[in-house]
């Protein structure tokens, strides 16, 4: 059985994702539940999503600005107000020491109990979560949790900035091949849809009802696999004890 911290043991959560919309596809229902419980949630987007969208008339600089605004609106739909961006180039993310340091910096600033991130593993059952940027961010973020953020001698410039070492007790991996924890997000399904619809540059081309149909099928299957009642919706994660 997976050992998962009770939410009442958690005060702060940091969500580290590659692109605007990643957290909303993978975990917006879960995030809505956390914020409803009074947990402080911070989003850290490694890129601005400048390589996304479908409109050739929008420059990449304009796209980056649009996607930042879309992510802020999506965050608001699930109760998150602290949204940060690192500005790495979309589609070219690598798990470098610099990225590890930049994520470790935010971990030390936020001091989260739990960190949610993409899985660094490729998922052969569902290829879409395994975008190279996702896997690179997952790898760098996991290394930032352990050992970087907790080691006062790693990235000494962070101590110079006044950021003391911090140990996050738990990691949740999204989109990986071996989930071990299911969250019933049925009460928050409509807020997940609202969050995703905030990303108009990414989903605005979809026919009416197509987004809801896609989510209903995939999240309903998650719920059924976990033995939840018919009509339920669920998000799945691999939870890793990092205390």
TrEMBL record:
<protein>
    <submittedName>
        <fullName>LmbE family N-acetylglucosaminyl deacetylase</fullName>
    </submittedName>
</protein>
<dbReference type="GO" id="GO:0016811">
    <property type="term" value="F:hydrolase activity, acting on carbon-nitrogen (but not peptide) bonds, in linear amides"/>
</dbReference>
<dbReference type="GO" id="GO:0016137">
    <property type="term" value="P:glycoside metabolic process"/>
</dbReference>
<dbReference type="InterPro" id="IPR024078">
    <property type="entry name" value="LmbE-like_dom_sf"/>
</dbReference>
<keyword id="KW-0862">Zinc</keyword>
<dbReference type="InterPro" id="IPR003737">
    <property type="entry name" value="GlcNAc_PI_deacetylase-related"/>
</dbReference>
<dbReference type="Pfam" id="PF02585">
    <property type="entry name" value="PIG-L"/>
</dbReference>
